Amino acid sequence: MSNNPRTGLAVAGLSLGTALNPLNSSMIAVALVVLRADFGLDVATVTWVVTSFYLSSAAGQPLMGRLADRFGPRRMFMLGMALVAVTCALAPFSPNFALLCVARAVMALGTATAYPSAVVMVGAIVHRSRLESARPLGRIQMANTSAAAVGPVLGGLLVGFVGWEALFLVNVPLSLAALLIVRQTAPADEARERGRFAELLRDSDIPGILAFVSSLLLVMMALLDVAPGYRWYLLGAGTVVAALFAWRELRFSPPFLDLRLLGRNRPLMLVYVGFAVFNGVYYFVFFGLPQLLQEAGGYDPGLVGLLMLPMATLSVLATPWAVRAMGRFGVRRVMIAGVVLLTGAAALMWLLTASLAIPLVLALTALIGIPYGVVSIASNQGMYVSTLPQERGVAAGIFQTCRYVGAITATVLIGVFAGSGVDQESWGLMVLAMLVLSAVVFGVTLLWRERAD
Known about the structure:
453 residues; mainly alpha; 20 helices; 79% helix; 0% strand
C-alpha cells in the first residue's frame, strides 16, 4: 500500500469499518429460520430484521456523508464505530423481536457512517502520503466485496455453533479495532468540524428523510398485510407520503435525494432503475435460498453458509474480468451480457423446485454470482459516466440507496409469497418473480446509452 506503515494501518482501519455494513447485511441471511423459531415468527414478520437494517442504511448513508463533511470524517467514523460496539453488546439481551429490529436499525446507522467518512478521509491520506486515490479506494472497495462474500459463511458458522446472538457480538471487537486504528493512524479533522446545531438540522433535510422512510414503511406494511383490513389505507397513505416527499425534495436545497438530478439526466435515471430492480432479483436468492435450504432441505445453518459461498466467491472473481471487458467492449455491452446471464441463472433456479441436492445448489449459487459481479460493476461505471464530475458525490449516494430499495423489495415479496414458510412451491413463485424483474432490467439496459458530453 505504501512505504509508510501508518498509511497502511489507516487504510486497514477504514476498510475494516466500512466492511461492517455489507458483512452484517449478508450474515443475517442464514439466521432467519433460527430467529423465526426462537421468537415464534412467520416469514413476513422475520423479514423486518432485514428491512430495518436496509431502511436505516438507505437513510443513513447520505445523511452521514453530510455530517462527515460538516463535522469531520474521523470524528464521525469513530462515533459510528462506538455506536456499533455499544448496540451490538446490548442486542443479544433483547427481550423481544421488535427491540432486536431496533438494534439492527441502530447498528446500520452506525455502520453507515463508515463508508462516506472513509471516502472523505482518503483525500487527506493521499495528500499526506502522496499516493494515488485509486489505490486506497480500491482496497476499501475490495474489503466491502470480500465482507459480503464471507458473510453467509461466517454467519452460518456463528449461528450453528453459538446462536444468532453471535451475529451481534462479533461486531464488538471488530468495531472497536476499527475505531482504535483510525484514532491512532488517520489524519486529524480540519476546522470544518464546527457548526451550529440549528444549521445542521436545517441542512440535513430531516423532514425529507422521515418522509422517505415513512413512505417505504407504509408500503411494506401494506404488502405484508401487517394490519389486516387496513392494507389499502396503508398503501394509499404510503403513496401520499411519497408524493409529498417528491414535492419537498424538488423545492428544498440541499435535498436528501436530489430528484432534480434524475429529471435532467435520463441515462442516470435508467441506471438507477435498472440497478434497483437488478438487486431485487439478486436478493430473492440471497435471502430466499437460505430459508429454502433450511426449511425444505433440512440443512443446518453452518452448511447453508458454505453452500452460499460459491455465489459470493464468483461475484468477487467476476468483477476484475468485467472491468477488463468494459475497457474492451464498452459499458453497455458488458451490462447487457451480465443481464442475459442473470436471466438464465434465474430461470435455472426453477430446478430447485424438484431437487435440493448439494451439487445442484452449489452449481446454481456459483452461476448466480457471476452476473451479480458483472452487473454491479457495470452499473457502477454506468452511473459514473452518466454524471458530470461535480454531481458524482450526490449520484453515488443515490446509487447506494437504489441497492437498499432493491433489497427491501425482495425481502417484502419473499414475505408475500411465503408467509407460512419457504418451501419448493413458494420458491417456484419467487423464480417467476425473478424472471419478470430480469425482463425489466433487460429492457431498461437496452434503453441506456452513455451520456453525451
